[in-house]
Amino acid sequence: PRQPGCPTCLVLYAVKVASQTLAAGQPDVMAAVVIASAVGLRELEVVRAVDPVTSTTWEGPELQAQFPKPGGGWRTAFVLRGLLSAVETQALLQEAKNMTVNYNQSDLAAATGDSEGLTGARVAVTTASVDIMQGGQYNCGPLAATLRMVVDLKLLPYVRHRYKCAGAVVSSASVLRHRPGVGANAYPAFCSVDHLAYCTIHLALNPEDAGGGMYVQSGVNVDDLGFVPLEAGDAFVHQHDLPHGMRLHSGETFGIVFHFKDSILACLTDAAAWYDVPAQEGDADAQASLAFLISSGHGSRRSSTNESDAAAWYTKAADQGHPEAQERLACLCLAGHGDVKRDAAQALHWWHKASMQGHRIAQRKLAEILLQGRGVGRNAAEALKWLQRASEQGDVEAMHLLVIAHSTGTGCIQSERVSLNWCEKAAALGHREQLHRLAVHLTSGRGLAQDLQRAAKYFRRAADGGHLSAQCNLGVFYVLGLGGLSKDRQRAFEWFKRAAKSGDAEAQFNAALLLSQESAELGQGLSDARQWCTLAAAQGHQRAQTLLEDLQHGTASGVLACVDCTRVNGSATLPTTNLPSLKMDETQHARLKELLCEVQSLSISDSNAEVSELLDVLETLHRAATAQANLHLAIIAPEAEPRVGVKQQHSMSDAPQPLDGRTPTAQGVVESGLAPQEVLHSQVAGEDPIQPGPLTEVSNHDQEAAMKAPPTAGGSPRVSAKLRSTSKVCALEQEMLLKTLAVGEPMLLTDAMPQLTGGKVLEFMPKLIGTAGKEVINYEVQGLSGAVQHRQAPLAIYIQEVQKSKPGHAYLMLSDKVLNHPHLAPFLVSPLCCQADLLPHLPDEILPEGGCHLLVGGHGAQGQLNRSPTTCCSWIFLVLGRAQWRLLPPSVTHRELGCTSSALWGVATSSIDAFDDDGICQLAEPPLSEVWEATQEMGEVLLLPPAWWSQLRLEDRSLAILGRCLPEVSSPQAARQTAQLLGKAFSAEETLVEVLASVAEQARTQQHNRGHTRPNFSGLLQSSVATEAVVVDSSTLLSTSSV
Fold it and tell me: How far is 437 from 639, CA to CA, in rounded Å?
């Protein structure tokens, strides 16, 4: 449409889309309807934007659209026509194609924004993304020059002018390639907001090459979707409050998305402070986003009261009618996390309010709670209505539940036809459970015409998505050569093995049987067959128990060759073995096994024609006697769906399931809940149907703990060290502060460094970058298994690189050089508790090296367990980020931790990991019984008394300042620890200076013999561990791997 908002143009374009998809055999009426209801853009206006920082001016055409906000106000979006010239557009388009050319379908990120459910590919669009800017730094090579001109001369002036935000900067940018997803013609665009972006700009490079494009959602119902008509070179601009998304039904498009922050500090720290003021002023969108950041524990929003704080903000937004806040508040109420009390009735209340506004996820969850009868009486009929509404909006999980409801007659008349109709719709959207269910029906011919080729295709799609039963059944198809697949036992074994590793008993059994017959061909041994068979038998698999007994007697050979195919569900008979059955009682069967074992042993020592003939006869008799108990490679139908929180044994399904745990009986369906579909396991003749056992609700946390817990059988129990929490004290409370210092325990101080908290951080960071940003610093990259790489970079570049930090590839640096600048001195005043500092009175030889140290690290970085000097206290002020600490008291000596002290002041470093709760007490000699822990937030000071051990772990990008001090009240502890270290008696009348008098003389001797030996913070780094802890200058430490 050339004229924005023109009804005639939009209708003509909608007709074009419908005709194109009709010609392709996939009529997309939904796309035509949505396009015809495209967003109404106002008249074209020319805007002149002047950058308030650089005075750069950009002038161009602008279109505007507004959408009502919950609680009042407007969400606003802008389209900048022709922001890019034709030359710029073509140049960027070619680079975008080159950058994404190597991406294949397995590399693509599913762009649903909905993490719930079983789906592997139920998306309206798949997106390949290549980062070209992170933390404000370009990393895109030849593309950087063109991008820099676009950003500096066009985007920044416009954003700073339009939103009156002089500090706005580009935080990140990505090249995107969009293609239609699986089920794109049936699945609507999924829209979401950019919580961590102050505003976002999408550059369209070739929208005319695809059907569909950018959508915005003014409400929560699918009918509220609006199409954004863009042309090549256009820019779509919006803030953090506008839900948006992509949907394509043909072709592919390329674009570049830019995310802006409101300040350089927000860019460095990934903060989102722009929500605070509007949230306080009553903006419902800001309140909901702020609650989301708090509940997810993002960055500086982490606190011990996350859930209660999030619930408070969600409630304020929900009271204004914000449907997303209502839905999330209902989830908090139902779960009852933290200080939020569990209240099913309140959850029902908020889900109902969101459902009435058309929120599809709320509609589905409302149906679930009505089926369960939590907070209200069971009402299956009402639940079915809400499931129907959610399904009509494309909610595939609701479709999944409708399949079960109609197959069991829960809340409706039982109808296999309607159930299969919804099953096919959910399968078309890639729902793994329904893909498997549909494949089973196509295999058995139940409710649908038998079609093994389609069944094989659906089994494969479900198996690729991780469905265990589908993986097992696909292996069966390869063994039997069904559905157009060639017989391939190697590939069959690989699929059995994938499912078996995840605990599927049928797959373990099938893998064991294949190995028992063809272990050499499959590159495995009979021991592997026994191992898989043992695992299946441990789960109660009867045929596995029989096979295991045969394997132990060495009589399982030749069994598989007799079992070519199986029978599925009593219909659609497949070829079976012609081997006759031979009836024997247990005694006769046992004697036959003994004879077979004897003859097999004889054949090994004396192989001749008579022995071989006898062996063949006995093996034939044995197979005939056990024909009905032998392996039937079972095609497994859908299992009973589990309840919420229950780990499924035969499926990766984690879909919400409103069951009360009861299973269907022969008399019919459970009346008071949604019962699972009848189990369709293949059965050996004469066996009873396998009924699922009672389901027990288990939390995810309990499951993870059970999985991680080490086995204790056959070994001595492990003793965990007792964890003590570090007390938190306000530095302004002098009495409590002095009392804690006198006791000699570590503590977390609040309000201790007002010169570096709140708004002062905004002053400190620019000065730090301005004075030391170009200074080259050494840093380490911590890999797996203790591997450490040493690198160098300017401080400003390193701070940008830190955002790439993650466990296994974590960044950490420590320097006492970068803070040595007069402009930074006002920020580096010692904490309030250290004002009466005796440190300057210590002998020069044992004064701590340097002044304050700067520590900058990323998520996953961990320091070494190290001991502070006996002569002073240590303090660590966390400017940005979040840190975990493990602390050990001075009573733990360096020899107990397997290291050697290298200085008179007791400094030492140990390779023991104090965060290993079980391991630390086992490794230390004698075992430790007490470990302290502390969680340090932004703006807090950790104060360590003399000679305490400490170990650091960073949970986010963090910046800290480290220093030494000696408060007067701590001097007796320092004197006592130093005297004890020297092996001399300590008199209470002695002062610290007197105790250290002899230390100074010995320090002079060591300095003469060994060089510089004054204590520093270098022991904190990973590279500081050694069998003998040698203290060296921190500048050489970072580049020395042998320390």
Answer: 9
Produce one character per residue of 685-702: b if its CB has 16 or more CB atoms within 10 Å, e if not.
Answer: eeeeebebeebeeeeeee
Contact 773, 898 (CB under 8 A): no
- Cβ contact 40:65 at 8 Å: yes
Query: Could you tell me if 333 and 325 are in contact, meaning their C-beta atoms sit under 8 angstroms apart?
Result: no
Q: How many CA atoms lie within 13 A of 256 on its CB side?
A: 34
Using an 8 Å Cβ cutoff, are 294 and 329 in contact? no
The pLDDT tens digits of the residues spanning 76-85 come to 999 999 999 9
* 908 DSSP β-pair partners: 867
Question: pLDDT by residue (tens digit) across 821-873?
Answer: 888 988 988 888 776 677 777 777 666 766 799 999 998 999 988 888 888 88
C-beta of residue 200 within 8 angstroms of C-beta of residue 168: no
Please list, in sequence order, all residues whose beta carbon lies within 8 angstroms of the beta carbon of residue 735, skipping any fewer than 6 positions away: none
Residue at 291: amino acid letter: A
Residues in contact with 640: Cβ distance below 8 Å, sequence separation at least 6, in sequence order: 663, 664, 676, 677, 679, 692
What does the alpha-carbon distance between residue 95 and residue 165 come to, in Å, rounded to a whole number? 31
Res. 287: pLDDT tops 60? yes
Q: Cβ distance 938 to 881 under 8 Å? A: yes
What is the rounded end-to-end Cα distance, in angstroms, of the chain? 69
Q: What is the 8-class DSSP label of residue 182?
A: T
CA angle in degrees (0–180, nearest 5) for 238-243-247: 105
Angle CA 592–594–599, to nearest 5: 95
CA dihedral 533, 538, 539, 543 (to 10 degrees): 50
Token output for 715? 């070994």
Instruction: Give whole-number Cα distances, 890 to 949, 963, 995, in Å.
Output: 7, 19, 18
Q: Which residues, 6 or more positions from 764, have their beta carbon under 8 angstroms from its beta carbon?
A: 756, 824, 827, 879
Residue 568 is predicted with a pLDDT of: 30
Which 3 state secondary structure label does DSSP give 220? coil
Place of tokens 């030749």: 558
Q: Which residues of 893-913 are buried (b: 16+ CB within 10 A; e: fewer)?
A: bbebbebebbbbbbbbbbbbb
Cα 550 from Cα 173, distance rounded (Å)? 62
pLDDT band, very low/low/confident/very high, at 290 (cuts 50, 70, 90) = very high
pTM: predicted TM-score of the whole model, two decimal places: 0.56
- Quick check: 589 pLDDT over 70? no
DSSP output for 788-821: EEEEEEEHHHHHHHGGG-BTTBEEEEEESSTT--
What is the separation of C-alpha 179 from the centre of its chain, rounded to a whole number of angstroms? Answer: 25
644 against 201, higher pLDDT: 201
| Radius of gyration in angstroms for the set of CA atoms belonging to the chain, rounded to a whole number | 35
User: How many residues are there in the chain?
Assistant: 1043
| β-bridge mates for residue 776, sequence order | 794
| Whether the predicted pLDDT of 659 surpasses 50 | no
- Angle of CA points 438, 443, 447, to nearest 5°: 60
And the tokens for 303?
A: 């606190």
